[in-house]
Amino acid sequence: MEPLGATSVFLVICVSCLLFLSAWRKVSGSGKLPPGPVAFPIIGNTLQLNTKNLPQHVDELSEKYGSIFTIYLGSERVVVLYGYEIVKEALVGLGEEFSGRGSMPLFEKMAQEPGIVFSNGERWKKLRRFALTNLRNFGMGKKSIEERIQEETRFLVERLRNTNGRPFDPTLFLTHAVSNVICAIVFGDRFDYEDKKFVTLINLIEENGKLQRSPWTALYNFFPTLMDYMPGPHHRLFKNGLEFRKFVLERVNMHKESLDPNCPRDFIDAFFIKVEEEQKNGQSDFNVGSLVRSTVELFIAGTGTTSVTMKFGLLILLKYPEIEEKVHEEIDSVIGRSKSPCMADRSQMSYTDAVVHEIQRYINLVPLGLPHAVTRDVHLKQYLIPKGTTIFPSLKSVLYDSREFPNPEQFNPGHFLDENGAFKKSDFFMPFSAGKRICVGESLARMELFLLLTTILQNFTLKPVVDPKDIDITPVTTFVSNAPKSYQLCVLPR
Predict the structure, then answer these.
(1) In this structure, is the dihedral angle defined by the CA atoms of residues 23, 28, 34 and 37, taken in order, positive or negative?
(2) Most C-beta atoms within 10 A of its C-beta, which of 71, 76, 197, 381?
C-alpha cells in the first residue's frame, strides 16, 4: 500500500478536527447538547441550511432529529424546539429559564438603545411590566381603545368607499388604519392619512419589510461583523432605523415641553413621569434612550404585524367567497348593517371568531417565533442547554399540528368550531408565542383584527380581480416572517 501523500494527510487532519469539534460541541458539563447536523467552524451550518425558507428546512430537520435539535447560524448556537409538548414545556413550564431574548444582530444594531423587545434580565422585566400597565391605562383591553379602533374603522370605510369599485392594493389602506390605533396610544392622537411625516414613516415600514426579505438580512444575523463591511440592502435598514428614532425623538421632545405630570395623555407622557420619578437612581432603566426605543418598538410592531395579518386575511377570503358569505350572514344576523361592530358582539359570532383565529393560524406569521435564550444552564428532556443559548420555538410546528388541526395545510374555520358550531378554544393557538415573552400587544391585536374584519365585511363585499381558483395564498417566506404576495381587489358596497 502506498504511503499517504501530503494532501491526503491534510484532509485526514481536517476531517478529524471537524469530528472532534462536533463531538466537543455536543458535550457540556454533565450533559450533552441536543443532536443536529455537523457544523463547520465559523460558518456553522450556513451552507447546509435553506436560509431562504428556514422554517421549511426546520420541518425537515425535525423528521431526522426529533423535537429538540441544535443548529449553528454562523458561530451562534441555536436549539430548536419543535412540537406543542416541547414548546409548552420550555416556554410555559420553564418560563423563567427560557425568558431571555436570543441574539438577532440585525435588529439589535437597528435598535441602538435597549427597549422592551431586545432587553434582558431585570431591565426587560421592568420595561415590559411598565408597558403592559400603561398600555392598559391608555386603553388596551378597555372601552376607550375600542372606541379608538371604531373611529379608525370609520375613516377606513370612507376611504374604501372612495375607490368606487375600482381595483386597488389594500396594503397602505390597512397599514395606515392599524398604525393610527397604536399612534393614538403612544403619541396621544391619530394622523391624517395624508400627513407627510406619517406617510414617510409608513413607507419606511413597507420598505423595511421588503428589505428583510433579502438574503442579506439572514447573512447579517449569521456574520454581523463581516457584513458591517459588506455593501448591501442591510445598510438601508440601519438608515431607516435612524429615521424612526429621529421622528420619535421629535415627538418625545414635544411631549416634554407640554407635559402635565397630573394628567398623562399617552404612553410617552407616562414614561416621562417614570423617568422623573427615578432620577435619583443613577442606574435607572427608565431614561430617554429606553423611552425612544420602546416607543419605536411599539409603533413598528403595532403597525406591521396586524396590518400584514389583515392583508393576508382579505386575500384568503377572496379565494374562498363561500367563507366570506357565511361571515356576511352572521354579521347581518347579530349586528345588522347600521350599528358599528363592538367586542361584545364577538361572543355571539362563533363563525367570524373562528375565521379570525384560522387566519392567524394559517398564515403562521412568525414561523420560528422571535428567538428566546436560556437564562441559566437548563436540563430539557435528556439534554443540557448551556446558559445563553439561543432558542427557536417553532410556532409553526404547534399551529400546524395535525392532531389538533386536521389537514393543517388547508384553510378551515372548522378548526375552531365544535360539533355544534360553537367557538372552540385551543391550547395550540400560539400566534403570539407563549410564556413570559408572549407578545405585549396580544389583546390589542385581537381586538383590532375582529373589529377591522367585521366592519369591512359589514360594509363591503370583496371582489377579486382574477378567478378565485387562481389566487395564490402561498406566503412569501423570510428568515423572520411570512407575508402575502402583492395583490389587488375591489370592494363593492353592500
Answers:
(1) negative
(2) 71
Residue 258 lies in a domain: yes
Alpha helices in 400-483 (DSSP H): 442-459
What is the residue range of 69's domain? 1-50+65-103+371-399
Residue 24 pLDDT: 44
Are 238 and 350 within one domain? Answer: yes
SS (H, E, C) 185-203: HHCCCCCCCCCHHHHHHHH
Per-residue pLDDT tens for 222-257? Answer: 888 888 888 888 888 889 888 888 888 899 889 988
Closest Cα partner for 220 from 432, 80, 73, 389?
A: 73
Cα 88 to Cα 429: distance, rounded to the nearest angstrom: 11
Nearest alpha carbon to residue 235 among 200, 211, 252, 270: 211
> Are residue 18 and residue 121 in the same domain, yes or no?
no
Say whether both 345 and 388 belong to one domain: no
Give residues with Cβ within 8 angstroms of 211, minimum separation 6.
Answer: 217, 233, 234, 236, 237, 240
CA distance 374 to 371: 10
Residue 448 amino acid letter: E
Positive or negative torsion for Cα 18, 23, 28, 33: positive
* Domain assignment present for 59: no
d(CA 398, CA 431): 9
- Would you say 190 and 180 are in contact if contact means Cβ atoms under 8 Å apart? yes
Q: What type of residue is 347?
A: S
What is the number of structural domains in the chain?
A: 2
pTM of structure: 0.90
